[in-house]
Amino acid sequence: MDERLLAELAAYIAAHYEVERGKLRHFRIDDLRTITGPRTPSIDLLGAINGLLSKMEDSFSERLLYLIERTGRKPAEIYTKAGVTKAHFSKIRTDKHYHPTKETALAFAIALHLSLADAQDLLRRAGYTLSHSSESDLIVEFFLVQRKYNVDLVNICLDHYGHKPLTNRRGSAAVE
């Protein structure tokens, strides 16, 4: 393991790590009911929901396929670099509502050589984000910011800090 890389990673974590403040506020469904009655949604509420649904963005799967196409690389090259099997990728490709784990989404972000902003966008479409209150997220963010796009190397560093890898694949950690 490259000691300089580990030192840079440790400095990045120290500079960006934030302890979560406060607690999540929990809402009850009663808090969201309108004056119109306990179980009858108002027409305005349905209209608002329909308006929001009409503005839905591409799903994770749709965005991933677009990003792969945009690179001009073969899908097999991308999913192999991400440590995803052909069968797993087939599920993603055929189900536009496929919901990946955060780790799978991050592995694809690295395999696609995405910028931090594009990686955050892809994660958001799967319902996730990178958080500065998560050491494992900071490790992945470090690699995105430094443009070190090697899933195996990310996995080695995650393991070094006691976190689970993005993928179960074991391969060469050679830097690209």
Key terms:
56% helix; 176 residues; 0% strand; disordered C terminus; single chain
Describe this structure in words.
- With 176 residues, the protein is mostly helical.
- The chain has a domain at 3-20 and 58-160.
- The protein contains ten helices and no strands.
- The relative contact order is 0.14.
- Mean pLDDT is 83; it is low at 22-29, 31-36 and 171-176.
Unreliable stretches? 22-29, 31-36, 171-176
Largest sheet: none
Average pLDDT for all residues: 83
Which series of helices and strands comes N to C? HHHHHHHHHH
Helix content: 55-70%
Tell me how many strands there are: 0
The DSSP helix count reads 10
Shape: globular
Query: How many angstroms does the end-to-end distance come to?
Result: 15 Å
Strand content: under 5%
Radius of gyration equals: 20 Å
Described by its quaternary structure, the protein is single chain
Secondary-structure-based class equals mainly alpha
Short description:
The chain is mostly helical and 176 residues long.
Which SSEs are present, and which pair or pack?
Blueprint: H1 3-16, H2 29-32, H3 43-54, H4 60-71, H5 75-81, H6 86-94, H7 102-111, H8 116-125, H9 135-145, H10 151-160
